[in-house]
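Students often ask why we bother encoding 3D structure as a string. The short answer is that it lets us treat folding as translation between two languages. Here is a chain of 494 residues written in the first language.
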Amino acid sequence: MKKLYSNTLMQLIIALCTFSFVACQEYSIDSQPEGPLNIQIDAQDSYTALATSPSNVVFNISSNTPWTIESDAQWCVPTPSMSASSSLVSEIVVTMENNTGKQSRTAKLTIKAEGISNTKVVTITQASKEDLVVIPYDELVATEGEDITFTIASNKPWEIIPSTAFISNIDKKSGTGNEDAFEETITIKVPANAGARREGTITVKTEFMTYTFTITQNGVVIEQEEDPESTTISVGGTSTGGTVKIRANKEWKVEVPKEYQSWLKAEALSDTELKITTTVNNQLSTRVGHIILKTKEVVDGFEGITFDINQSPAFWFNGSSENRVIDEATGDVKIMAVAGNNVIANYAIKKGHLTFELADINLNGESCLHFNLWPNAGNANIKLWLRSNSDCDFRCAGGFGWGQKMFSLTTEELNAIRTIEFFVEDDPDNIGKLRVRLSINGEEIGNLVNQTNIYETDPSNNPGQVINLQFEGGLNYTEGDYYTVKSITYEPAE
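And here it is in the second language, the structure alphabet:
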């Protein structure tokens, strides 16, 4: 028994020595309870923390005597705050709440060990909440230039970044800020503007916050009086002229680019009035032209204000929009073979020359394309029915009297049609009467003579024939049949 006791005692001594060696080797602290009292702390004297989502402060305490940590601020909490027992190494984690105030704050951690007179004080300083308030300049800067001001209130260092040169002459481009966030007034010297209205941005930045606002300076002003923000002028499809009120701070003139001069004219009637003149829009979709209003004097940097002239077509559609397709590039309109899918003019024709220009036509079955020139009043009419491999019919009826021309077209001939022209004119062989002619692709197909001149015999009851182009109802249509209209043009004879 004595020998066994001795062996057990020896093993215990070896184990204790081994543990002591490992612990001392890892932390370089002699934590044996025997010997003088000792505490070792690897914390720095001070730490700084962010106002929002601050990182934890972490340090170690190794001691052979009990210890405590006291925080003088509720927002700063060490864990653990005392030793569980002596002779152990503890990791201390200090957590902090967000600082919602406008000033920084400080917490002190006091570390005391039992039997040791010296204390360790760790100071933690937490930054204030980022606070930046900018009151921008929000008025229109004068064309002649002026000094403008805005204010900055910040509890952090800040800087100003201008986006462009005309707002770069700033009396103070940076500042240190102050904990009370007192307002600071900033002045910008804006030079005169000889060109068009211009804009620039001012950006105020701190480390974590950014505020940007726009400064607008007036320049050369040429605008519509009734709608200053709009650079679009809309006119009707059959309009021949109209005026627009203009407000300007310089004398101005108007130019029409060459590509629009065939249908669009513009002139300055006075310093405040612009006249727009257009021809009838013979396309089936809205057409857009441009005019440019410029200063009479050359102004550096100002190339004029471009206004869009949107002219609606002189026609309207009857039927679902799903049954037609507008080519945005050309303005051509593809019209599907559906009963009642009509194109109707907003004007009536009398004597003159009416031309239908087709980009494409595809009629292969029983589809019938019907040109119906019908009056606003009365019953006089001019009609044309086009069918493939069947009789086509060109006629005058009603108040005109009667005239008819029948002819036939193969499918290939019908689908090759690109122009269809009606001529309503005085009959050279019958005084006081009309002659109505039909031409297809430049070839005369029908010549109906000795027709009553309804425009002279009863003008009040016969204001003219309205263009009505449609697929004839009551027939079967071949799926996929269509025609594509480029333009419908009417040139009156008088």
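Translate back mentally: The domain at 223-311 is CATH 2.60.40.10 (Immunoglobulin-like). Keep this in mind for the problem set.
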